[in-house]
Amino acid sequence: MSCSTFKRMKTHVNLILALMALCVSGIIGLQLFWNYQNYTSALNTFQYDINQAMTKAVDLERAQRHQQLIRHVKHWLADTSFIRITCDIQSRDSNTVFHINDRYPKFAGSSGLSFGLTNFKRKLSQITPEAKKLVINHFAETRLLKDLQEGFIYYYTQRLGDSLTKAYTNSHLRMKALDTLYRQQLASKGIHSSFRFQTDAGSPTGYVTEPVNAALARPYKQEMVQARLTRPDSYLLSTMKWAVMTTLLLATICLVCFGYTAKVLLSQHKLTVLKDDFINNMTHELNTPLASIKITAEALKSFHYSPDVQKEYLDIISYQTEKLTELTTQILTANRHLVATKEDWQPVDLNPLIHQAIDALWVQSRNQQATVTFHSAAEPALIYGQAANLLTAFTNIIDNALKYSSSVPHLRITLIVDFKWAEIVFADNGIGIPEAYRNKLFDPFFRVPQGNVHTIKGYGLGLSYVRQSVGQHRGLVTVEANQPCGSLFRIKLPLV
Ligand code: ADP
Predict the structure, then answer these.
(1) Which atom of ligand 1 sits closest to the CA of residue 489?
(2) Ligand 1 site, residue 401, Cβ cutoff 6 A
(3) Mean pLDDT throughout 432-443?
(4) Ligand 1 site, residue 469, Cβ cutoff 6 A
(5) How confident is the model at residue 3, as a pLDDT?
(6) Beta strands 96-102 and 83-89: pairing type?
(7) 92, 161, 206, 492: least surrounded by Cβ within 10 Å?
(8) Is the CB of 409 under 6 A from ligand 1?
C-alpha cells in the first residue's frame, strides 16, 4: 500500500469515527433533552396536582364543617323549648303549610318561616313527630346547606339566626382534619411527599400550592391556607422511571455498539497495515533469492563454463533454493502445529522438551558465540499437551533472544515447578522491548518499529504463535523487562 493510500484510508477511518461519535452524541443529547422536557412537564403536573388536591381538601374540610352546623341546627329545631314547629292547612289549595317560629320571639311580632313541601301530600292541621322530622331534615339539608355553600346566613327566625351566626363565626379551619384530607388527596394522585401548612404568605420558592380560602363565609371573609411540600423525588421517579430507564438502555446500547464498531474498525485498519508490512517484507525476502537463481541459471544457459564453475553456480542455485524452502517452511510452521488433532495430546515432560528446543538452535547459538543456560526442574514437569506445538513456541522465543541482541547473546532459561503450575522463564540480555509495545507484541504480524528498515528479518508471527499455543494449553505468556537489560518472557502452564 502506498503512503498516500494509507494516509487516505486513515483519514477515512478517522472521518467515519468522528461521524459515528457525532451521531452517538447527537442521539444521547436528544435523549437527554427529551428527558429534561419530561422532567419539567412532570414538575408542572406535580404543581397542578398539588394545587388541585389542596382545593379539594379545603372543600371537603369545609363540607365537614357545614355538616357540623347542620347537626347543630337540627338539634335546635328539635328542641321545643327553643323552636316551635307547627302546621295547618292552607285554605286556598288545601295543602299542608309548615311554620318554624321561635318559642320565645326576641321582638314582639317577629315572623318565622312558613313553607309547603310539594311531595308532602297528607293534610295535617297538627304537626306529628314524623312530619316534624321530615320538616327538620328538609330545612337543614336542603335550604340551610344551600345557604351555607353560598356563604350566607339567613335569619329565618331571629333566635335561630343568632345562634347560627354565632356557631358560624366560631367555626374555623381544622388543620388536623385538613392534614388527613390533603394526605388522602395527594395519595390518590400518587404523591407521597411530606408537607406542612402555612396560613401566611411564605416564600414563593420551592413546592408551594396556591393559597386557598378556607373561610365558611367566602368570598366575603378570608382564611387563607397553603401547603409547602418537600422535593417530589419519589413522584418524579415513579412518573419518569420508564423514560429514564429507556434512555439509559438506549444510551448504553449506542455506546457499546459505537465502542465495538470503533474497535473493529481500528483493529481492521491495524491489521491491514500489519499485513501490508508483512507482504512488503515477504516480497523482498522472496525476490532476492529468486533474482539470484534467475541470473545464475541464465548464466549457465548462455555460457559454457568449466565443470568446476558450473558446480559453483549450481551450488548458488541450491543454496538460494534452500533459503526459499526455509522461508516457506517458517511461514507454514506458524500455523501447522496449531491445527494438530486431539490424538497429538499427551503427557509431556517440559525438562527434555526445553533441552530439545535449545538443541534445535545450537548452530545459530554457536555462530553467535551465545551462551544458553538452562536451570531445569529437579522433578519431571508433566503437562498435558502437544509436544511439537510447544517445541515450536519455545524455539521461537529462544530464536528471538538470539536475533534481537546487539552484543553476545546470553540467555538464561529456568523451569520452576509449583504446586499446580510449571513456569518457564526466558531471560535474555538483548535490545529489550519498549513498554509501549509490550501489549501488542503477541498480535499477528506485529514487529517493534525500528524506523523505516528492519535490520533483523522476521514476519511478526513467532510470538503470535507462542500466545496461541500457550493459550491452547490453558496457559499464559507475559513479557517484562529484564535487569539490567533485555527482555524476560514468562510462560505458565498447568501441570497434569
Ligand atoms: P519476528 O521476530 O519474526 O519479527 P515475533 O513475533 O517473534 O516476530 O516477534 C515480534 C517482535 O517482537 C519482533 O519483531 C521484535 O521487534 C520483538 N521481539 C521479540 N522477541 C524479542 C526479544 N527477545 N528482544 C527484543 N525484541 C523482541
Answers:
(1) 23
(2) yes
(3) 93
(4) no
(5) 54
(6) antiparallel
(7) 92
(8) no
* Whole-Å CA distances, 297 to 294, 313, 317, 323, 452: 5, 8, 8, 16, 33
Q: How far apart are CA 82 and CA 106, in angstroms?
A: 11
* Span from the CA of 433 to the centroid of ligand 1 (angstroms): 8
- Cell matching residue 398: 529462544
Amino acid at 178: L
463 lines ligand 1 (CB under 6 A): yes
Instruction: Write the single-letter amino acid at 116.
Output: G
Distance CA 368, CA 354 (A): 20
Task: Report how far apart, in Å, the C-alpha atoms of 38 and of each of 32, 52, 206, 240 are.
Answer: 10, 21, 19, 7
The residue type of 452 is N
- Residue 219: is the preceding peptide bond cis (ω within 30°)? yes
User: 159 in ligand 1 pocket by Cβ < 6 Å?
Assistant: no
For 203, the grid coordinates are 416564600
pTM for this structure? 0.52
Cis? peptide before 129, omega within 30° of 0: no
- Per-residue pLDDT tens digits for 328-338: 876 776 655 55
In angstroms, the Cα distances linking 468 to 265, 269, 271, 319, 345 are 23, 22, 17, 33, 16
**Ligand 1 atom closest to the CA of 464, numbered from 1:** 6
Grid cell digits, residue 216: 365558611
Q: Residue 265: pLDDT band by 50, 70, 90 thresholds?
A: confident
CA–centroid distance, 213 to ligand 1, in Å, is: 87
Residue-wise pLDDT tens digits, 217-233? 887 888 999 999 988 88
Q: Give, using CA atoms, the residue closest to atom 16 of ligand 1.
A: 448
